[in-house]
Amino acid sequence: MGGEKGGGWFKERFPLDMARLRNALEEELPEHMRFWWFCLGGVPLLMFLVLVFTGVLLATYYVPEPGEAYESIRKIQEGVRYGWWIRGVHHWAAQFMIITVILHSIRVFFTSAYRKPRELCWVAGALLLLCTLLMGFTGYALTWTQQAYWAMTVGTNLAEAVPLVGPYIAYFLRGGPTVGPHTLTRIYAIHTFIMPSIIVLLMFIHIVIMRLHGIAEHAAEIAQEMVRGISR
Amino acid sequence: MDDKEKLTRREFFLNCTMAAGLIASLGTAVLYGLKFAIPPLRRPRYHKVYLSTADALKPGETLEFTDLQGKKALLVNMDGKFIAFSLVCTHLGCIVEWNPEKREFYCPCHQGRFDAEGKVISGPPPRPLDRFEVVVEEGLIYAKLKEV
After folding, report:
1. Which residue in chain B has the smallest CA separation from A83?
2. Tell me, which fold does domain B46-146 have in CATH?
3. Which residues of chain A are within 8 Å of residue B21 when distances are taken between CB atoms?
4. pLDDT in tens, B25-66
5. pLDDT per residue over A135-171, tens digit each?
6. What's the Cα-to-Cα distance from A77 to each of A48, A63, A72, A187, rounded to whole Å?
7. Is A17 a member of any domain?
8. Burial of A222 (0-12, 13-18, 19+ CB in 10 A)
9. A119: distance to nearest CA of chain B, Å?
10. Rounded to an integer, what distance in angstroms lies between the CA atom of residue A30 and that of residue A177?
11. Which residues contact A23 (CB under 8 A, 6 or more apart)?
12. For chain A, how many structural domains are there in total?
């Protein structure tokens, strides 16, 4: 790399236009965005990143096997250094993600930000809400306590009640006719691999549509009303 | 950005606070994450715990004690040789019983049986009973118990 100027070698091979990037980051936001309830969509994203970070760490000690699952979590809590902290952050970030996703959807609903032409963004968001709840459910079951076992039994029974395809879905989720060892490995795969992948994909779609449309005018109008109301 | 606008005092302190918060939170996460992922380098420590005098335990006699986790254990004088067994069954953690006549351990939960060496004779246990290292010094018996 000898004689080339600082970053020249890399810049040539990774032709990123810093000026354009800075431009995109310094985009001006409408006035109403200074109210925190208009920015709630970013919080679940942040929580998701926290959950991925702590979740990957937890997966290094967790054993998805009925005899070992609870014991390995006890070991994380009591034996591994800062295990209680990592698991605690994972737990509370999960709670907080569910709460903020719901608050975000309430905000979008009541400011009519879902209206034409943003329906697809709303649909992706609704799917994300569903995925988040499923993540909560499967994560809850991974502890494999009595509560988790019966939650899984009730949950798969609910799936079974779906007309026509219900029994097949339930059979697939349980990995057999009843809740057993294969159910645990299945929810482990769903919780750590399948759902996160789907969530990343949906988040990508959700954010791309949002960026393409810009921030909803309906919302902006309502926000203006709010601003006037507050400043009066 | 580039027209060198002067930072006001207020903005400067705001930036400092933001940066401090970011460093503190990310630093904590990275530090704790690394500590979590890397197992402690030091080897587990053992404590030498006094159990009995060698004279007090005749051949065939036993002495019950607990390890540092509070789980039951048994010191047996096996024909002059002192062996300390953990009484926790290796199958599902029930407490096994020593039968001096048959000279074997018996687990009441799933009929697991272990011989006088702690090896599995029959039943579901996957491995022999755990044993503690026994040290006899100047007529005193000690067991080396793992720190919790």
Report:
1. B36
2. Rieske Iron-sulfur Protein (2.102.10)
3. none
4. 999 999 999 999 888 777 778 888 898 888 888 888 888 899
5. 999 999 999 988 999 999 999 999 999 999 999 999 9
6. 22, 14, 9, 21
7. no
8. middle
9. 35
10. 55
11. none
12. 1
Do B33 and A57 count as a contact with CB atoms less than 8 A apart? yes
DSSP B5: P
* Inter-chain touch B1–A26, beta carbons under 8 Å: yes
Residue of chain A whose Cα is closest to the Cα of B31: A82
What DSSP character marks residue A38? G
Task: Tell me if B87 sits within 8 A of B76, measured CB to CB.
Answer: no
Range of the domain at A197: 30-231
CB contact under 8 A, A53 and B29: yes
The nearest CA of chain B is from the CA of A222 a distance in Å of 30
User: By the 8 A CB rule, do A187 and A126 touch?
Assistant: no
- Chain-chain contact of B32 with A82 (C-beta, under 8 angstroms): yes
Is residue A58 within 8 A of residue A86, CB to CB? The reply is yes
Question: Is residue A7 in a domain?
Answer: no
Residue identified by tokens 């607990």 is: B66
C-alpha atoms less than 13 angstroms from C-alpha of A41 in its C-beta half-sphere: 20
Whether A84 contacts chain B with CB within 8 A:
no
Residue A25 lies in a domain: no
Tokens found for residue A175: 């990995």
Give the pairing type, strands B131-137 and B97-99.
unpaired
Q: What pTM does this model have?
A: 0.69
Mean pLDDT over the full length of chain A: 87
DSSP 3-state helix, strand, coil percentages of chain B (rounded to 5)? 20, 35, 45
In a domain, residue A23? The reply is no
Listed residue (A105, A130, A86) closest to A43, CA to CA: A105
- For residue A186, give the H/E element and its range: helix A181-189
The first and second tokens of residue B94, run together, are 């029930």
Chain B CA closest to residue A59: B37
Structure tokens at A100: 């903020």
Q: Taking each helix axis from N to C terminus, what angle separates A146-160 and A166-174, rounded to the nearest 10 degrees?
A: 150
Question: Which residues in chain B have their CB less than 8 angstroms from residue A85's CB?
Answer: 32, 36
Q: What share of chain A in percent tops pLDDT 90?
A: 53
Of the residues A85, A87, A92, the best mutation for testing chain B's interface (the one with the most B CB atoms within 10 Å of its CB) is A85
Report whether B32 contacts A88 (CB < 8 A): no
